[in-house]
Amino acid sequence: MADSIYAQGTAVWYDDKELGWTDGVVTSTEVNGKDVTITLSNERQGKPVVVRTSLDAIANNDRKLPPLRNAPEFDDVEDLASIPHLNEPSLLRVIQARYAQEKIYTFSGIVLVAVNPFTKVPLYGADAIKKYSGKSRENLEPHLFSIAEETYTAMRQTRRSQTVIISGESGAGKTESAKYIMRYLASVSERASGGGASTVERRILATNPILEAFGNAKTMRNDNSSRFGKYIQILFDESHTIVGARIQTYLLERARISSLQLVRGERTYHIFYQLVAGASAAEREPLSLNRPASEFSFLAGGSFDQDAEAKNFQTTKHALSTIGITDHQMTSVFTLLAGLLHLGNVEIRQYHTSPDAILDETEPSLITAMNLLGIDLKEFRKWTTQKFFAARGENIRSVRTVAQARSVRDGVAKFIYACIFDWLITKVNSRLETNESMTKEQAFIAVLDIYGFEHFERNSFEQFCINYANEKLQHQFTSHVFKIQQKEYASEDINWQSIEFSDNQPTIDLIEGRLGILSILDEESRLAAGADTTFIEKLNWQLLGSTGGKASANFRSTPDSFTVKHYAHSVEYDVEGFLEKNRATVPEEHLELILKSTNMFLRAVVETSINSGKRAMESRAPTPPPMMAASVPSTPRKMRPMSGIGVQNLVANLTNGLDRVHHGPKGGAGARKPTQCSIFRSSLKLLMDTLVQTDIHYIRCIKPNENREAWALDPALTLAQLRACGVLETVRISLSGYPNRKTYEEFCSRCVSFLTQ
């Protein structure tokens, strides 16, 4: 009888607003015809819970029924696919029970679930690497190294490139996971080559402290948050030895370089604190850094440990040296960074009640900043406080307001820092991917470490782009795990029950469709009169008015914000600053001043960055050779000296070059400069095209609590993340389908020994 499933004494789960789910026991079951009344114990609320259902609902395992609870011996399984009653609360119970025993890894079908311990754990030493090397995951407990070994073995056996996608919210432990996987691959490659760590392996590992120093920052949710995305490909030759690497980065958060963007408890990039804390007296003197960090506007937003940052600075310098950055180049980078700190201190004020900006030529920080950056002080002052624009054939002079002038000042700082970051990535790639490595490359193992889904009290352009990227990755995961496998089973007439899953394609269409949010944002950003207010008006008209409410299920708005229903959470975005951040440009007069700088290193850095942007727009995912995955374009060329080139012509050539790349050879009024979101969108497309040409492995990182407390797990928070990343559906499809697959040739090779003569 169907009602016997919920007989008296049956262990079940029931909803709990605080805990997500809590234990329950059936105390009685009454059947009246086809109707069934189930009474559950409820110790937390002090009164029983009554569930009214039917025999048909019980027979069909209706989702509204209380989920069945597993016996205690199943609370510590290593693979969630092995529990008898496969349901949401049972998955959470296993994760909780294992975490309470300080077991942070659990398999979920083809996915590894990793729960952040928020403390150091002794799981990644040489003994652990040796333990997992050459072993299949079935023979050892779940671990990051299980996935790393799986990728290495698959690459050797199939000669196909592999990708490990590490996803999760900010603070879930993605960056640390990526570092340990890279360390494991370097170690097993050493053994394959029969020697110690090679120069290229040391350089690959040295990229971690460099990227963290220049691309990570402390946020309210994470002390070491990656404020950019990265796809690191480790290149292997035919003997499975590392011969090189290449790094692709995505959307550095420029807004970190501004005192206005920092809130209590947040900081700008680590490298600034390292420089102020760790530079020697001889290094500080020419950079005018003989003052506390709190006296710099860009650094005043967060506290830091002086000794720890000084130690980190030495680690960063050693890593830069390992990668091949010379002492002279390091000094040049630190000079620019110091110049940006002083630029942030430049005081722009107004005269009495007038809103017009005033910038004194004798302002000490202005003098220091311009000296370090090699920029003409008088011209910088002039173009920061005023602007000229054409109207009816005449040049009209206009004085900037204080807010506008400060925005220009910060915009120059953001632009220069982004150029430094691009230059650094270009230099790193030139050391990791040589002509020799490209010749020897047979396949790669890549690690994708990209920003996690973000939802703050105030969400802006950066969060919109980050969450857009996560939507694309979630869709890739859905397509790979659910759509493709279900279609394959159906095409082969395999009898199995189709699994329902959440498809986020409508949200992606809302964002990147022909008349979606990105298109409207770009259109408005390219209009001289475009503003945040007109952007939200066009969103309302296009997405709500003209479509008859077609997008209303995933989109709604207010006069100064819009809300998107993402796969993980609905997020409200404040449109203030959207257009400025999307344009991400400095006034042409300031760009010309930068390219006239007497600091030759600054000029080279800017040219490198602009040319790398051109190459990013030109890039297309290449077609891989048979049995191998694609490679991304080769390392950018070194920048040529700029002597003898007219600066105005250079500015025109660089910016027009971007116009041609993005919109073809036509210039003039029809040419459009690429915006930040258009560049980011192109980069994401290239990434997705590359991913589909590799075998993909998944690690889902979970943030167990918001306070970063060691070994503390918030059930409701953890459950929300398990829901969002599709862990339950992954297990269900693994059980309903055939997760272990072999080709006919592989099957024969492995089973030939069972054949008799």
From TrEMBL:
Stored Pfam families: Myosin_head
Gene Ontology biological-process annotations: actin filament organization
InterPro entries referenced in this protein's UniProt entry, alphabetically: Kinesin_motor_dom_sf, Myosin_head_motor_dom-like, P-loop_NTPase
Keywords: Actin-binding, ATP-binding, Motor protein, Myosin, Nucleotide-binding
Entry annotated with the keyword ATP-binding: yes
Region (Actin-binding): 684-706
Example of a GO MF term: microfilament motor activity
Record-listed ATP binding positions: 168-175
SUPFAM superfamilies linked: Myosin S1 fragment, N-terminal domain, P-loop containing nucleoside triphosphate hydrolases
One annotated Gene Ontology cellular component of this protein: cytoplasm
Residues annotated as domain Myosin motor: 75-757
Region (Disordered): 613-637
Family classification: Belongs to the TRAFAC class myosin-kinesin ATPase superfamily. Myosin family.
Protein name per its UniProtKB record: Myosin motor domain-containing protein
Record organism: Cylindrobasidium torrendii FP15055 ss-10
Taxonomic classification: Eukaryota, Fungi, Dikarya, Basidiomycota, Agaricomycotina
